Design the sequence.
């Protein structure tokens, strides 16, 4: 029995003095009526004395403990990490995909734990730069909600169990009728190889891409324009005029690292005769691209299609 | 007027005051003396999770310190070896020794062994192994004859005065770098360790920091 439960009895507001009169509260306060009777014991001076006694003993013991030298441990690896020198960071080059756009990254790892993300200076498109998504990706590794083990039917399982299940289950699928894979887009070669192998084994299976951040519209647009669906890569370094229609290519887009580099290249005037590009932004909210724009037009998203000729 | 207290009380008060003062002084002196690093830190020999013996491995078997403390010349820390390093041999030697059970468990499960740190400086003091080893200071100058210890014991106080004593006059503790892990090294006949040390100081321009910022960064 708790006070929360009592106040739940009546939905209307009960004045405190009336609440004190309810049989539930009386029972709770006197330690009778309900089985546990916490309230009564709380008011009982005996138990308070006991608590003081325990606290005093604890304080005394704490004094004793602090007389001893604190024990420090050296926790060495079980299996050594290749090339690791304790106390020095290791750097790894890797690739991170957002919306199917690969970004070359360099990750700093301390004692086997990744701590800082930067662009890989040797990567042809990132050239040492990284955007917000890749910078933030390191936090995802320490996300307490991240699943660290295999699950089956809401219970923990193991990769071995999954292997046994998959071998049996997928061998019965024949041509792959009714089988669908749902994945995030990935620009890597090994991903492409896995897709090709799976499609060879199950020719009738569906391979679907789904993710929050995508540019499917742009792909469909290029299909309308040219007949074949294609991932557009804009040559911002050649464009004299850039018009962004609700397109935050300098801020929150999946691919911002290379566009930012190319765009700023054309914006620098280093010697006489260099021209500078001009950026027009049409958008319904505030974005970095709008902030950079020479001319910004505010339009509702629903009106932007009408703006485009 | 008749005094309330007898005259002899004066003496009693003085005596009590003197006694109290003296006992406080001796208390402070005793506390200071017995908590000096020399007295509480030297001889520290905690029990380790595995009774690993340097006398056996580094002394009798004759393994070089670098085999296990392999990063000591490259980094500030002298890493304690990974369980894997022990298993290089102990998959074949003493494979069912009960003493090695924690090592086998760690190797099988990936759970690290928790060794107890013996030599420890406070965080506000900076120390770097590689700087000392490349200058030619041997492990023996700071850790004693580890190759004769069954359980590693701290033999030097590691207090500031001790660091400075050597920093002011490093020559007697220097030797050619190839001998820094040969703990029983003797200078070649006809020369003293100090003479050799002086040569090294000149050749390498050794100049250990004695300014506060050198160790308190």
Sequence:
């Amino acid at each position: 029995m708790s006070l929360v439960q009592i106040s739940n009895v009546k939905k209307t507001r009960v004045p405190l003095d009336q609440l004190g009169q309810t049989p539930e509260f009386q029972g709770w306060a006197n330690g009778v009526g309900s089985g546990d009777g916490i309230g009564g014991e709380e008011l009982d001076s005996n138990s308070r004395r006991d608590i003081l006694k325990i606290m005093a003993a604890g304080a005394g013991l704490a004094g004793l403990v602090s007389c001893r030298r604190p024990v420090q441990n050296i926790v060495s690896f079980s299996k050594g990490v290749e090339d690791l020198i304790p106390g020095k960071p290791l750097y790894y080059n890797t690739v991170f995909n957002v919306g199917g756009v690969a970004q070359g990254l360099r990750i700093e790892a301390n004692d086997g734990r990744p701590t800082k993300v930067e662009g890989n200076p040797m990567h042809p498109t990132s050239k040492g730069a990284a955007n917000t998504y890749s910078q933030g990706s390191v936090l995802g590794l320490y996300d307490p909600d991240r699943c660290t083990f295999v699950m089956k039917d809401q219970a923990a399982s193991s990769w071995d169990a999954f292997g046994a299940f998959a071998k049996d289950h997928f061998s019965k699928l024949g041509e792959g009728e009714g089988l669908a894979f749902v994945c995030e887009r990935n620009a890597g070669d090994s991903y492409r190889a896995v897709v090709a192998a799976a499609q060879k084994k199950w020719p009738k299976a569906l391979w679907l891409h789904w993710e929050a951040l995508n540019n499917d519209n742009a792909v469909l647009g290029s299909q309308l324009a040219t007949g074949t669906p294609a991932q557009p890569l804009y040559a911002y370094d050649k464009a004299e005029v850039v018009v962004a229609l609700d397109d935050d290519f300098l801020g929150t887009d999946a691919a911002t690292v290379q566009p930012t580099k190319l765009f700023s290249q054309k914006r620098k005037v280093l010697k006489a005769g260099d021209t500078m590009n001009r950026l027009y932004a049409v958008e319904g909210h505030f974005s970095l691209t709008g902030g950079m724009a020479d001319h910004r037009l505010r339009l509702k998203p629903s009106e932007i299609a009408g703006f485009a000729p | 007027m008749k005094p309330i207290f007898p005259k002899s009380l004066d003496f009693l008060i003085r005596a009590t005051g003197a006694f109290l003062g003296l006992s406080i002084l001796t208390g402070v002196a005793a506390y200071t003396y017995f908590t000096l690093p020399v007295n509480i830190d030297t001889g520290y020999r905690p029990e380790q999770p595995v009774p690993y013996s340097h006398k056996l491995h580094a002394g009798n078997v004759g393994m070089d310190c670098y085999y296990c403390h392999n990063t000591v010349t490259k980094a500030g820390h002298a890493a304690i070896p990974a369980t894997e390093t022990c298993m290089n041999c102990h998959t074949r030697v003493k494979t069912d020794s009960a003493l090695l059970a924690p090592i086998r468990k760690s190797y099988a499960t990936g759970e690290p062994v928790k060794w107890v740190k013996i030599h420890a400086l406070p965080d506000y003091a900076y120390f770097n192994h590689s700087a000392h080893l490349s200058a030619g200071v041997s492990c023996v100058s700071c850790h004693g004859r580890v190759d004769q210890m069954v359980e590693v014991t701290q033999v030097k106080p590691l207090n500031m005065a001790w660091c400075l004593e050597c920093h002011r006059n490093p020559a007697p503790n220097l030797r050619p770098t190839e001998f820094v892990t040969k703990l029983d090294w003797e200078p070649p006949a006809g020369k003293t360790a100090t003479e050799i040390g002086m040569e090294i100081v000149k050749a390498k321009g050794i100049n250990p920091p004695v300014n506060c910022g050198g160790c308190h960064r």
User: Anything to note?
Assistant: The longest strand of chain B covers residues 114-116.
